[in-house]
Design a protein that fits this description.
Number of strands: 0
Strand content: under 5%
Structural class: mainly alpha
Radius of gyration: 18 Å
Mean pLDDT: 85
Largest sheet: none
Shape: globular
Helix content: over 70%
Length: 129
């Protein structure tokens, strides 16, 4: 039952383009007892149909500029090959620690960006007055 609930929320967040693995991997590892490597594999496997559906919707809505998308897609493919290779070399526990650190750094980065944006907006509002 918990796998179904985790998958549902993973699908919603991932379908919105926000990276459902940020939810699915911690839920699988912390609450459902799945190893880090298995959780990452399940994340990728679950991502494939969801990404295909979302991509189809975006293509139908003419939201994708293919000439621009090919460069990051090719770079992402190369990065995924390298990432899979390195993930296979890293011990399962260390892989979990690295994923946790990544999430923390990502959270800090987003917080700094949002705070900077708010400060710029306030400064612009003061300049208008």
């Amino acid at each position: 039952m918990w796998f179904l609930i985790a998958g549902f929320f993973f699908g919603i967040i991932g379908g919105m383009g926000m990276g459902g693995g940020i939810v699915l991997i911690p839920v699988l590892t912390l609450f459902l007892g799945v190893s880090q490597r298995e959780a990452q594999g399940l994340n990728l496997l679950c991502f494939l149909p969801m990404a295909g559906f979302a991509l189809g919707m975006l293509i139908r809505q003419k939201q994708i500029e293919f000439s621009f998308a090919l460069i990051p897609a090719a770079a992402g493919l190369l990065g995924s090959i390298a990432g899979a290779y390195f993930a296979d070399l890293i011990e399962n526990h260390l892989l979990g620690v690295l994923f946790g650190l990544f999430l923390i750094l990502l959270g800090i980065f987003r917080a700094v960006c949002l705070i900077g944006k708010m400060l710029r907006r306030k400064k612009e509002e003061k300049n208008v007055e």
